[in-house]
Design a protein that fits this description.
Number of domains of chain B: 2
Oligomer: heterodimer
Shape of chain A: elongated
Helix content of chain B: 40-55%
Order of helices and strands of chain B: HHEEHEEHEHEHEEEHEEHEHEHHHHHH
Number of helices of chain B: 15
Strand content of chain A: 15-25%
Distance between the termini of chain A: 29 Å
Radius of gyration of chain A: 33 Å
Order of helices and strands of chain A: HHEHEEEHEEEHEEEEHEHHHHH
Helix content of chain A: 40-55%
Largest sheet of chain A: 8 strands, mixed
Distance between the termini of chain B: 28 Å
Shape of chain B: elongated
Largest sheet of chain B: 6 strands, mixed, barrel
Radius of gyration of chain B: 30 Å
Amino acid sequence: MEFGPILRSLLRNKLGVLLIALQIAFTMTVTVNAVYIIDQRSERMARPSGLDEANIFHLSSVGYGNNFNESVVSTEDLALIKALPGVLDATVMNAIPVSGSGSSTGVGLEPDRPETSVQTAMYTADENVLNTLGLNLVAGRPFTSNDVRRGARDMDRTQSTAILTTALAERIFPGEGMQAIGRTIYNPGGGAIEIVGLVERLQTPWAESSFIEQSMIIPEVVNDGSTLYMVRTAPGERDRLMMEVEELLAAQGHERILRNNRSFEETRENSYRLDSVMATILYVVIGTLMFITAMGIVGLAVFSINRRRKQIGTRRALGATRPAILRYFLLENLLISGSGVVLGALLTLAFNMFLVQTFDMPRIDWFYAPVGMLVLIILGQLAALAPAAKASGIAPAMATRSV
Amino acid sequence: MFFYYVRLALLSYRRNPVLSSLMVLAVAVGIGAYMVIFTMNYYMGGDPIPQKSEQLHHIQFDYGNPDIPNFEPPPQLTWLDATAMLEQTTAYPRTATSKFVAIIEPPGNEVRPFFVNGRGNSADFFSMFDVPFKYGSGWDRSADVNRDLVVVLSDELNERLFGGRDSTGETLVMHGMNFTVTGVMDRWQPAPKFYDVNNGSFDPVEEAYIPWELIISQELNRSGSTNCWQAPEGTGLQAFLNAECAWIQFWVELPDADARSDYSMLVDNYVAEQRSLGRMRMPVEQRLFNVNEWMIEQEVHPDETRILGALAGMLLAVCLLNTVGLLLSKFLGKAGEIGVRQALGAHRGSLFIQHLIEAGVIGAIGGVLGIGVAALGLEGIKVLIGSLMITEWMRLDLTVMALTIALAIVSTIIAGLYPIWRACNINPSVHLKSQ
């Protein structure tokens, strides 16, 4: 192999080598950490909400004027919505999962012991909530119409039933979450809550919360001026029904405003918008950086080959084959990229430590750096390929020319 | 001489267009990307009201329950404390403020009733935050006390309700009540929305402003984040008001350091008094924050743009390293020409200046292109963000554009120093011989 001559010629052009190696090192640092951030964000965005995401939409109705009777209108509305062909079920809720706004509380094994309580999202809905959201009941029973309490904001809440997510039950009763049916938990205010069912999964309204899987549904319909309808449709019928339902309700002539008519998918997507914006920007940064670095490698390779045209010609005249010349320049690039990625691996870890310390991000997984090294070495080889091929095409006669 | 060298630089660009364009491209992309992130950080981490940020202060009380693990004291105030602070703050402008939602019923049948995001605030709010007015003005403190049904409209809402005319003195029906318009704001959109960072730091401002006390006395629908650390005793509105539930922002304008220490004493005394009543048991390190302190305390500047800032810095470094390499090839490729110039009597100094200008010209062209890259990048980000937050502040102003070009020229010249030094030290005889 030609390691010896390559090393010696590289040492004579230290700066050129250093420039490329540094570029590769920085590119690797940015790329690997950016990919790591993208992976984390995609993982967050991929978490299932527990709902039948593709077939649900929501719509709010806000009444005004003295003639508006919310409880009458909402009962009528629900009956109208459910009668539409294509609608599977509908319910009224206090908040939309993963939408960014909702209500949370603490629940614990004893009343008035806030220090032992566990944080949870609190949803209220009528008895059709499980079927409407498409939640998977894994223990206990669904709500019945007898469970549902109806009234104003300040109604009596000393006794109620609830359906919990298994994650919440597991937090309250460590190790025996699945046996939680029939047991009683307490709100800090003192209300007793009997657990009647467990669902596999239902995320909180807050995508970035630390207790995203801990939710509780209370069978309750509160008349507080604003009603949120959740509607589940047969597959493929959602978009048509979104329009039909709004038109139907508007045609009833009540003194109210219909607003926020959106599919659940859109609402969920909005909650993760920042993550997807970040991912897109990072992809652009990675692409740009790879391109610039590749251009830099091409530029310097062309330069160094042009300087050595006579030498190449001489080598060819002395019997070196074309593949030998090609191999020489690819090997030269490999040595430069190799030192670049070693430096890059160190920089990558250092930058990741900075991210961990400054932004509380988790540490990078071990395999990111080696994969990054490999990718950049391949990038270097690809960038050097065209100039090296051109170099191998230099005629032996070049040795005899003066320039 | 300068223009002669600039002409030489342009000639040299044309002689080697691929290499030169590659350099310009590298500079443009590096600087452009950096300026996009710089602009975002500049505003998101910047001072939203520079002329007053030292004077405006928010209060942080010792809220929470020490028994609840990892409890962060909520940054807003409870109703009890907000009303007490309003009463006790007599010497300085102050405002309690919180959000509400309501339905406006326009007269006639042309415009359907619609939903607005509103804000309740004290009379001083408008002068404290330098709110610009198009017509009329805010209300005075007596309207706060008397719970007058008065309203200030945003420019857009005035457009929608009154076709943009001067509507002061007219009435509108909101929440089923007749409000009298006292003023119409001009375009106003602080970014970050510093006076309320609890409900989206980059949300649009509210559309209708009314005396804050009306939210309670007229039972409007409160909106915005509410944080309770103890359940209300009993049910109903009064129980909620008396409960440990924080949902109100409170700002006071303290003209100087004396006023700040004076007011700080007042707050400390109030806390001591409340503590003796069994409240405020969670000690905090600081109770008065000016705007910039508050923005830092509330972590308004998103991690995302700060991370991107570090990454963009490295992107710029790669582009400049690239430029060093390309300049090196270019200048050494000109060895023959440099040799001729030297043989004809050019000093090293003048060669140095000539190449400095050549690098500067490449930087300047790259900078101009960089402005285009940055403008394109910002537009792209705006499209990606959509309605997630207000984005009208995301633009290149003249300062940023000038900064872009300056940064491009300076960094290209710095990148060029070594290649220039190498070029000036070429031995002319070698190159003259081989010609």
